[in-house]
Amino acid sequence: MSGEGLPTRKITIDEDDLRRLQADVWSNEFAPVKLELNGKTMDAKLRFRGGHTRNYPKKSYEIHYGDNGILHWNAEFDDPSMIRNALSFRFFNMMGVPAPRTKHMWLEWNGYPHGVYLEIESVDSAFFRRRSIGSKSLIYAVNDKANFGLIDPETDERKQTLLEGYRVMKGNANTEKRLIRFVGSINRLRKSSLRSLLVNRLDVTVYLKWLAGAVLTGNYDGFDQNYALYEHASTGKYRIIPWDYEGTWGRNCYGKLCGSDLVDVKGYNMLTRKLLAFKPYRQAYRKILAAMLESKFTLDAIEPEIDSLYERITPAIRDDFTRKWPFHSFEDEPELFRSYIRERRAIIKEELRTWTN
To answer: How many domains does the chain have?
Structure first.
C-alpha cells in the first residue's frame, strides 16, 4: 500500500506502550511516540480518541507535539466516502462560520502502512490565533448532555450540574459560573428578559448560521454535542463552532443510510427552541436558509468541492485495505451526495414555503 498523492505521517511506538493503550481503549492516557511530520522527527504523545469508534479495528488518534501542537487523526471508519467531515467543514467555512481545516494523509505505523486518515485542525488557542479571533474562553460539548437544557437525556431527571456535557478547555472557575448562569437563564427567563439575555450573551447571527449548516448537512448528532462554544473577547458573547460531521450528507454516524428528512428543519436543543420562539429570529433564520439555497447549498457550489476531494484521495483509497468499505462503495458515494443535496433542497424549500409565522 502507498499513500499516492497524500502527505505521509509516521508514528513509531514501543510495543509495550501500544499494548498498554490497547488494554483500555476508553482511557484518555497518552503514550510517548516518535512523530515524523513534514520531514522532521520529534517527540510526541498519542492517545485514542472518539466515541463508539474506539472499539473499531482502525482507531482514531489525538497527537500532542512540539509547543502545544495538537492534531486529530480520524480513521473515518464508518464513512465510505472519507470526505463527510472535510466537506462539511468546507461548507461551514463557505457559509462564514469558522470550522476546522482538514487534510487527508497517509499514516505509517512502526514502518507498516496504516492507511488513509483525515487530519483535523484542533479547536484551541492556535485555531483562534490563525483567524485573528479573540476568545476569552473555550468549552467543548463532549456528550449529549450539552443540550442547553435542565434535563439529563439519559435519565430524564434534572441534571446534577449544568456543566454536565461540557469540558472547559480555556478559562477558569468564572468561565464555568458564566456558563451555568447562561444555561440556567435560558430555561428560567421568559419573553423580554429572555430576549435581553440572548441579545447580550449570544452572537445570534453566528448561531443561526451554525444551525443552518447543521440542518442543511443533516447532522442529527450535532445539536446536543459535537460543537465548541467560546466567548468572543471584545463582545463577551458566546459563539459556536462545529465539530465531528462524519454522520452527514445522507448517512448517520454509524455509516448507515438515512433519509434526507432525518433532521428537522428547525433543528434541536433547548437554546434553538428558545431562540426560534421569537419571530425576528425565525425570520432571520429563514433568510439564512433561503440565501444558502440560492448560493452555497447547491450542486453548482458543492460538486466542485466533492470532485476536488475525490481527485486527491482516490489513488490512496484504492490502495488502502485497512478500510471496512470496498472500493466500489467509495466510487458510488458522489451520487449519494448529489441525491442528498437535491432532496434536502426540496425539503427546505417546501418548509420555507409553508413556514409562515
So the answer is: 1
